[in-house]
Design goal:
mainly alpha; 11 helices; 0% strand
């Protein structure tokens, strides 16, 4: 691996780390198309960000935890149903082309952003009681897609917590980061067994993404909620659209 490749990986890690902390997502869904655009083979680009996600989300989530934003009940329900679904989705990737996974990831990012642009803003008040059945289906659906797309699920968890469970945005990010940390673990194990992970890429991404995720989360907790939600939507539309266009060329 050349020095320029290391530099590109470092920049990707830093950018993804900041976005992860700022917007409550693991970051692998964003890292995958960036790695693919940098010339990393598709399957490696899909799976290698996963292990780096774990320390990144822990570091970012800790900032939200100290502010008291975590919703423990939603987190518990998500994980009870999401962990086995993640394992099932990760196993399925062995029979799907890596390029297809990258394109699906790009489309999901863009669709989430468009949905949020047209949703009502949240606030910092107490959320409505989260329906257990809705949280269950979110865990199942996001868990399976997280394993299938080799990401930690944060890109899907955050908007679903916002729009389905009506959690305030900062509570959404705290809970999404916490769930993403756990969901990344079984998916990582499966992809290690399948031989899809380049540990040099993991090391560079983790080294640069962890400190920037802390910076991003600190910015988020001091930002007004409605503004934070709109920023989140715009970033996802821009990234998803650009990556999807690149992948289709």
């Amino acid at each position: 691996m050349t020095a320029s490749t290391f530099a590109v990986l470092g920049l990707i890690g830093a950018g993804v780390g900041f976005l992860s902390g700022m917007f409550g997502k693991g970051g692998s869904a964003v890292a995958t198309p960036l790695l693919s655009a940098a010339g990393i083979p598709s399957v490696i680009a899909v799976a290698s960000p996963l292990p780096a996600t774990i320390p990144t989300t822990i570091a970012a989530a800790a900032v939200y935890w100290r502010q008291g934003w975590l919703d423990r009940r939603v987190l518990q329900t998500t994980l009870v149903f999401g962990v086995p679904a993640t394992i099932a989705g990760a196993v399925v990737t062995n029979w799907i082309a890596g390029h297809t996974l990258v394109l699906v990831t790009d489309a999901v990012i863009a669709a989430i952003g468009v949905r949020l642009l047209f949703s009502h803003s949240t606030n910092d008040g107490d959320p409505r009681p989260a329906p257990t059945r809705s949280a269950m289906w979110i865990g199942l659906g996001v868990g399976f897609s997280a394993g299938l797309l080799a990401n930690s699920g944060g890109a899907l968890l955050a908007p679903l917590y916002l729009t389905v469970l009506r959690l305030p945005i900062k509570r959404t990010f705290a809970t999404s980061l916490s769930a993403a940390t756990v969901l990344a673990i079984p998916a990582t194990i499966v992809h290690v067994l399948l031989g899809h992970i380049d540990w040099t890429i993991v090391a560079v991404l983790a080294a640069t993404s962890v400190p920037l995720s802390i910076v991003g989360s600190r910015v988020a907790v001091t930002t007004q909620s409605a503004r934070l939600e709109r920023m989140y939507a715009v970033v996802l539309v821009a990234l998803g659209g650009a990556f999807l266009a690149h992948g289709l060329l």
